[in-house]
Amino acid sequence: MKYLHFGVPTTQDREWAGYISDLGVHVTDPAADPYGIEWLKFDADSPMHELIKTQSHAAFEVDDLDAALVGKTVLLQPFSPMPGLRIAFIDNNGAIIEISESKL
């Protein structure tokens, strides 16, 4: 498992790197932040789990996303925001964790 970034929900406008329309969320590029922070701004009608919309999260990359989710409390099932990337969110004893698998 490799650490990727720290995600922080916000209501402020930023320089958005992308928008995931199916999930109603604007995101910044954590590589553009000196501390690796990914800012997320959710639309009022975003279908994302409330914990994801209100709590910060740590993000990790794994080789096999499906295997990493076995036995976990999944808050958001795997989805693909772009070709070659799959992401899911879990609740790890109250801490929100984003897990991704990259084939880029």
Strand content: over 45%
CATH-derived topology: 2,3-Dihydroxybiphenyl 1,2-Dioxygenase, domain 1
* Helical proportion, percent range: under 10%
Count of domain modules: 1
Order of helices and strands: EEEEHEHEEE
Question: Can you describe what's shown?
Answer:
It is a single chain. This protein has 104 residues and is mainly beta. The chain has one domain (2-102): 2,3-Dihydroxybiphenyl 1,2-Dioxygenase, domain 1 (Roll), CATH 3.10.180.10. The chain is built from 2 helices and 8 strands; from the N terminus they run ββββαβαβββ. The protein has helices at residues 50-54, 65-69, and strands at 2-9, 18-20, 25-27, 37-42, 57-61, 73-82, 85-92, 95-102. The protein has an 8-stranded mixed beta sheet. β6 and β7 form a beta hairpin. The chain starts with a strand and ends with a strand. The model has no long low-confidence stretch (mean pLDDT 96).
Secondary structure: elements and pairs:
Elements: E1 2-9, E2 18-20, E3 25-27, E4 37-42, H1 50-54, E5 57-61, H2 65-69, E6 73-82, E7 85-92, E8 95-102
Parallel strand pairs: 1-4, 5-8
Antiparallel strand pairs: 1-5, 2-3, 3-4, 6-7, 7-8
